[in-house]
Design a protein that fits this description.
Chain lengths: 256, 552
């Protein structure tokens, strides 16, 4: 069986449980002083890499690398990945206000992959802030690698990977040779809590930094966000005292 | 007979159930049928046997009446009984949908407490919308000598919010307006019936939070919180309501409205009367409005769950937390291994329990501050020290909000898991930290020696948990049923034990019905006498929440 070297993509996003608000300029979601965490699908990706190592054995998984492109605080998310069990982390640092579109992220990942030579790349199917669902697919296109997206089950056998995908019609199982790209879906696994000893160990694991300038990529956005608005608030209902009242209200609203 | 009917009810076909129904109720009630809306009844049918009428309702119907279980309680003959004229008066004050009368099913939820331990026989529930309405109602009740029970979210744990006999329930459910908020000072003024969680959500959008938090926040109301001086999970950080309440609007038993709704942080003018009402459990008046100081919502919060091998190590963790986390420490809770077993059975399924091994004790620590980096640094070195010195065996740190919520759900779910496991004897005691868990161990031994504690025995679990940071132990005994024999085994032994160790028989739950007679274990007779004088002065007819709080 081929020895796996796994690269996992991580993204720093606004925490899933936080109630988001649109900023006053209505150009974006408010991010200042809001809690951020690791994108849930990426968390599932890291956990899947850990699970694969547990199932296949330490000798069959040589290394798990966590990679992120983002501002300096993205380091926290890499520390989470390291505490979960990744061996090494790579941080491509961008300036605080830099937005990276999926194609740019895919190009950066391609550059890192060409340097590191993993044979399995696991990404979250989408990030919960932009919901693009593009990076994994674009990366596969750029590298000319097979892709298995929306994975709900991953199995490795010799040098091929069998992935069960969640698709509109149900489940689809595909097999492909390695190297391959896999993007995770919600039901792939349940990420475990990070324990104290692992958090302590993670502090000593290597974290390499690059900056955006190290890559020859044009990151000017191709899309312009014109406005961001909240969905219209639901109008509150009225209480009625009797069935007759209900009928007359429905009639006047044109529903009866 | 009722039990027979309930057990065999499910076996009967639809038609025979209906027939059985009619035959049981025929002699007692008119106009009965499945789902038929009961018309507004005349007073004569209010004398019907409510037990029969509730047969077809739900599990609540199996709760026995307080008056039948506690035979030492006698209805005060000085109180009048409800008449049709009374109902007519209330109907002139409130619209018909704010009065509940005549329909047993509708009356039931107001008559039974959250613990399903106490059940009253109230025939009338009123739900005023304004302070003025409360004033009119109370004045009338005082003149007529009709006993009343103020009721908020009905989440109290000592039977203080439900009637014993036929007291009228004055529900604050409709008093739910937020009156004003000043973002400069952080003072919030709202009606007494506002639900705690709603207030918290309202404040969250403005960057503030309520200074208290408890498991019942989705149902409990701020007026009730103030009336019981509720403590909760964050007393450690934000102090008690005696400090955070700035002012109150109280309706006195004779209908007078006492308006002290100031938003001043400092006001040393005369006796601080509002302090009397905080913790008075509805015996001195109804809290219609609250003015409260709200702290800033912290920008950075971390939650940690730790496993500890002994109670001594738990105490040591607490000392270190005060030393090293100091101003960012916002909660310090503990629970024992037996609590975990309950939780795993009823709330958080096994696969989700964060820590793998089974420790005898678990600690939840929460830190809140204005700066994440500062939080993380302090927490990180604190945890490292704990590990290196082997004070904790293992622990997990929440990596995002969802994980933090899971950890909190474990702690907050313990009372609910207990309730699901059986009938719960709930004790809430404060005492010096060193002897806290000894009480749990002593009680377990006592019950084991009595042969009632164990598998297939009347008592299946004795758990200890609580706000160890405040010196507050919650001790729950999970039994198959509430029986006088079990009660006699635990009480007053547990209160005597507490008194011997200079503790309080009720740290935060209050006295209510359950502990009124045990007040002497924590307060001297001279203090109790002064309390009685104050009660007599403000409520000479004794109509406010009788049979509770103060011993006879």
């Amino acid at each position: 069986m081929t020895v796996l070297k796994i690269l996992v993509g991580c993204k720093r996003v606004i925490d899933f449980a936080v109630k988001i608000r649109v900023n006053s300029a209505r150009t974006a979601v408010e991010t200042a002083d809001i809690k951020h965490s690791l994108n849930p699908f990426d968390e599932i990706g890291v956990q899947e890499a850990i699970n694969l190592r547990e199932v296949l054995g330490k000798d069959k998984v040589s290394e798990i690398i966590a990679l992120t492109c983002g501002p300096s605080k993205s380091q926290e998310q890499l520390r989470t990945a390291l505490a979960m069990g990744a061996d090494r982390a790579i941080h491509v640092e961008t300036s605080k206000d830099q937005t990276l579109e999926p194609l740019n992220v895919a190009k950066i990942f391609k550059a890192i992959i060409e340097k590191e030579n993993p044979n399995l790349v696991i990404l979250g199917k989408q990030a919960i802030d932009d919901d693009s669902n593009q990076t994994g697919q674009m990366l596969a296109g750029l590298l000319n690698w097979p892709q298995a997206t929306f994975a709900s089950k991953v199995e490795i056998d010799k040098d091929s990977i069998t992935v069960t995908r969640e698709v509109d019609g149900g489940l689809e199982t595909i097999r492909s040779k390695l190297p391959a790209i896999v993007t995770t879906d919600l039901r792939l696994n349940e990420p475990k809590f990070v324990t104290l000893p692992n958090i302590m160990k993670a502090r000593k694991k290597p974290l390499t930094k690059f900056s955006l300038q190290d890559f020859d990529i044009d990151v000017t956005p191709r899309l312009e966000t014109i406005s961001v608005t909240e969905p219209t608030t639901r109008k509150s209902g009225t209480k009625v005292d009797s069935v007759d009242d209900l009928i007359s209200k429905l009639k006047s609203a044109g529903a009866l | 007979m009722r039990n027979f009917v309930l057990r065999n009810f499910q076996c009967l076909s639809f038609l025979s159930r209906k027939a059985l129904f009619r035959s049981i109720l025929k002699n007692h009630v008119r106009n009965v049928g499945f789902g038929l809306e009961r018309k507004h009844k005349s007073y004569s049918t209010l004398n019907q046997d409510p037990k029969a009428a509730s047969v077809y309702t739900h599990k609540n119907a199996e709760v026995s009446f307080t008056a039948d279980k506690y035979l030492n309680l006698k209805r005060n003959p000085n109180f009048s009984e409800l008449t049709q004229e009374d109902i007519t008066f209330f109907q002139s004050v409130l619209p018909s949908n704010n009065i509940i009368v005549g329909n047993e099913d509708d009356l039931l939820p107001y008559n039974i407490d959250w613990m399903r331990k106490y059940r009253g026989k109230s025939k009338l529930i009123v739900r005023p919308k304004t302070t003025k309405q409360i004033s009119e109602i109370l004045k009338y009740c005082n003149d007529r000598r009709l006993a009343v029970v103020p009721q908020g979210g009905n989440t109290g744990l000592v039977g203080g919010g439900v009637p014993v006999f036929d007291e009228i329930v004055i529900s604050t459910n409709n008093l739910n307006k937020i009156r004003s908020f000043d973002h400069l000072s952080g003072s919030l003024i709202c009606d007494g019936g506002c639900i705690l969680e709603n207030l918290d959500n309202y404040l969250a959008e403005k960057g503030f939070m309520m200074p208290l938090d408890l498991g019942a926040k989705g149902s409990c109301q701020i007026g009730g919180n103030v009336a019981t001086n509720a403590g909760g999970l964050r007393l450690l950080r934000y102090g008690s309501l005696h400090g955070s309440v700035l002012g109150l609007e109280v309706v006195l038993p004779d209908g007078t409205v006492l308006d002290n709704l100031v938003t001043l942080r400092k006001d040393n003018t005369g006796y601080d009367i509002k302090q009397l009402f905080i913790g008075s459990e509805g015996t001195l008046g109804i809290i219609a409005g609250v003015s409260i100081q709200t702290p800033r919502k912290p920008k950075a919060v971390n939650v940690v769950l730790l496993g500890s091998n002994s109670f001594e190590k738990v105490q040591e963790t607490f000392i270190r937390a005060k030393d090293e986390l100091t101003e960012i420490l916002s909660a310090f809770e503990f629970w024992d291994a037996n609590s975990v077993k309950l939780i795993q059975a009823h709330i958080v399924q096994g696969s989700k329990f964060p820590l793998d091994t089974n420790y005898p004790f678990y600690i939840l620590i929460e830190v809140s501050g204005s700066n994440k980096v500062h939080n993380d640094e302090k927490l990180s070195s604190f945890l490292e020290n704990l590990l290196e010195n082997q004070i904790v065996g293992d622990g997990v740190v929440a990596q995002d909000e969802t994980q933090a919520k899971v950890i909190w759900a474990i702690r907050e779910g313990i009372p609910e898991a207990c309730n699901k496991a059986g009938s719960v004897y709930k004790y809430d005691l404060s005492m010096p930290l060193e002897c806290m868990y000894k009480l749990v161990e002593d009680l377990r031994r006592k019950l084991m020696d009595a042969g009632v504690y164990g598998k297939d025995l009347p008592i299946n679990n004795v758990i200890g948990f609580g706000h160890i940071g405040d010196g507050n132990l919650h001790l729950n005994v999970s039994a198959q049923n509430y029986t006088p024999e079990i009660t006699a085994l635990i009480e007053p032994w547990i209160y005597e034990w507490t008194e011997k160790h200079n503790g309080s028989i009720s740290a935060e739950h209050g006295l209510g019905l359950m502990k009124a007679e045990y007040l002497r274990y924590s307060k001297s007779s001279s203090m109790i006498n002064i309390m009685k004088k104050i009660k007599k002065e403000l409520d000479p007819n004794g109509i406010m929440n009788p049979y509770k709080f103060l011993p006879d």
